From TrEMBL:
TM ranges: 379-399
Entry protein name: NAD(P)/FAD-dependent oxidoreductase
Region described as Disordered: spans on this chain: 421-450
Family membership: Belongs to the NADH dehydrogenase family.
Organism: Microbispora oryzae
UniProt biased composition (Basic and acidic residues): 435-450
Keyword flag Manganese: no
FAD/NAD(P)-binding domain ranges (all copies): 12-336
GO MF term set: NAD(P)H dehydrogenase (quinone) activity
Pfam families documented for this protein: Pyr_redox_2
Length: 450
């Protein structure tokens, strides 16, 4: 079934993606004489910087993924469409999306592509089976099941040697996501799960953070990077740098050491927090427009974030290649708002801003409770003051008053009492690698910037 969509009337703006770039672009057009159609395959706006807190039982998925229709309910010039974009016709100026067998063709006068990015395994996609990434709600819920089920499996294992792999966790990637996840795993084992088990002490769990380069959080400068590593090690996290991952399987991770010797880390639970890949829409737009792409798949855009030869098409956020800064929430927010400002100016017969310029508002990363680092201009903070700043900034950018209130309550439970409000795992046997067969089945089916 094909459903044509759109008609003559106000200037038609189609926004692809309801992440930071798409949402802030849409909201910036609320008073413009336009009709906005926001298309996304998900019905919610995902606050990705807090996904690791869903995975470790601090927050529920609803608190960081409010419904996009609820967010935009008062903006009357917006229609939200559920669907995955399958094609963009730059000549006819239409976007085709599909969901549950229904195809929708949406015409546009201006197009903002903010489809974001996913997990990259640097050409080793087979690793995904055993080391899930953390880019979606589904990823976070799967990781929550894997993490808490690992402790349950450890309780069932009477042999100490056989139990050890269940109590070993490897996090791949020394960026903000990897550091935050490793810190929370350490706090979970040493504080939140205390006295929960009888056959073992959860504090004996081993958390290893593996990074291919020479340090963790290196973008924050050597002083803060060193502070972050020391904080992790004080928590009990084993930090291995200059150790690129060369193999992942059901029972562990293989790394190449700085001396060129291959080493093995035995662990049942592996978490991939390294690398991003641009949405497949980037390839589609590159073929249609001839725009160049870099190794990460980002599209080379003009200074005003438009595709070469197509001034009506804006590419923002993770998908664009413009300058040295990318992959950050603030880049998505600012470039989305820039695209909206450019459209408003054109409709008013004005040139508008000539070029997008990123305004660096600083970098924040939390290591664990009461420990964080912050780089804001020349200012460098660490410890409790940076942690309080991190809390305030994330609350500010979290969408929705109700979400902010519930997040504060859950944070209070976790940070003041060491409790975890969201420890439910809904997938029985989730600790087993996907490659394992169920004998009972007949057929054997199987870093936020401020």
């Amino acid at each position: 079934m094909e459903t044509p969509h759109g008609a003559t009337g106000p200037h038609r703006v189609v926004v692809i993606g309801s992440g930071f770039g798409g949402l802030f672009a849409t909201k910036a057009l609320r008073r413009a004489p336009v009709q906005v159609t926001l298309i996304d395959r998900n019905s919610y706006h995902l606050f990705q910087p807090l996904l690791y807190q869903v995975a470790t039982g601090i927050l529920s998925q609803g608190e960081i993924a409010p419904p996009i229709r609820e967010i935009l309910r008062a903006q009357r010039n917006v229609q939200v469409l559920l669907g995955e974009v399958t094609s963009i016709d730059l000549g006819a100026r239409t976007v085709t999306s599909q969901v549950l067998g229904t195809t929708t063709v949406t015409p546009y006068d201006s197009l903002i592509v903010a489809a974001g990015s996913g997990q990259s395994y640097f050409g080793n996609d087979r690793f995904a089976e055993f080391a899930p990434g953390m880019k979606s709600v589904e990823d976070a819920l799967r990781l929550r099941s894997l993490i808490f089920a690992a402790y349950e499996m450890a309780e069932l294992e009477p042999d100490d040697r056989a139990r050890a792999p269940w109590l070993s966790f490897v996090v791949v990637g020394g960026g903000p996501t990897g550091v935050e996840m490793a810190g929370q795993l350490a706090e979970l084992s040493r504080h939140s799960l205390k006295n929960n088990f009888r056959r073992f002490d959860p504090a004996d769990a081993k958390v290893v953070l593996v990074e291919a380069t020479g340090g963790v959080l290196t973008g924050y400068g050597p002083r803060l990077s060193g502070r972050a590593r020391r904080d992790l090690e004080r928590l009990g996290v084993e930090v291995r740098v200059d150790a690129p991952v060369v193999g992942v399987d059901a029972d562990g991770v293989d790394v190449m050491g700085p001396d060129g010797v291959r080493g093995r880390i035995t662990a049942k639970t592996k978490i991939w927090a390294a690398g991003v890949s641009v949405s497949p829409l980037g390839d589609l737009l590159a073929r249609a427009s001839g725009a160049e792409r870099n190794r990460a798949g980002q599209l080379a855009v003009l200074p005003d974030c438009t595709l070469p030869g197509h001034p009506e098409v804006f590419v923002v956020g993770d998908m664009m290649r413009l300058g040295e800064v990318s992959g950050l929430a603030q880049v998505a927010i600012q470039s989305g708002e820039f695209a909206a400002a450019k459209i408003r100016a054109r409709l008013a017969g004005k040139p508008g801003p000539a070029a997008y310029r990123y305004r660096d508002k600083g970098m924040l990363a939390t290591i664990a409770r009461f420990r964080a680092i912050a780089a804001i201009g020349p200012l460098r903070l660490s410890g409790f003051s940076a942690w309080v700043l991190w809390l305030a900034v994330h609350l500010f950018y979290l969408v929705g008053f109700k979400n902010r209130v519930t997040v504060v309550l859950h944070w209070a439970v976790t940070f003041l009492t060491n409790g975890r409000s969201e420890r439910t795992s809904t997938a029985p046997g989730a600790a087993r690698p996907p490659s394992w067969k169920d004998p009972d089945t007949a057929a054997g089916e199987t870093r936020f910037r401020a």
